[in-house]
Amino acid sequence: MCHECRYHYPGHAFIETLILWIIHKRPLHGYGVRKKIGEMTSHYTPKPGAIYTILRRMEKKGLLASQWNERTGKKDKRIYSVTEKGEMLLKVRLKIMKERIRLLEQMVSYYDSNLEKTT
Question: What pTM did the predictor assign?
């Protein structure tokens, strides 16, 4: 496999969008977000420290809000939810993804019809 073809770390915007989508469906704590990403992707699970850095950065950008969930006898958890600004960004990015999927389907169809037999 060529060097350029190897799987790379998903782009910053993709990870943010994935996190927004996960949390939009259900507010979660950092470990829950990390676990969901691991379940959904076959090649990437953020390192424990990285997910909290990403979540805090998204909170500073106004995309997420957090609240402490105090639990008696257990460690408190910071629960993240999507803000109005985060939901607007999620809508824009998912719309762009829909358009890219349509284009990718056309490209794959072309590959299937014209190039698959030559590889």
Answer: 0.80
Q: What is the reported pLDDT for 67? A: 95
pLDDT band at 41 (very low <50, low <70, confident <90, very high): confident
Q: What is the mean pLDDT of residues 76-105?
A: 95
Other C-beta atoms closer than 10 Å to the C-beta of 34 total 22
Beta bridge pairs of residue 68:
78
> CATH 3.40.50.2300: does it fit domain 7-90?
no
User: 42 pairs with which residues across the strands?
Assistant: none
Helix, strand, coil abundance in the chain, percent, nearest 5? 65, 10, 25
- Domain limits, the chain: 7-90
Neighbouring CB atoms inside 10 A of 56's CB total 15
Helix and strand totals (H; E) in the chain: 4, 3
Q: Is the distance from CB of 89 to CB of 63 less than 8 angstroms?
A: yes
Helices (H), 26-83: 30-40, 48-60
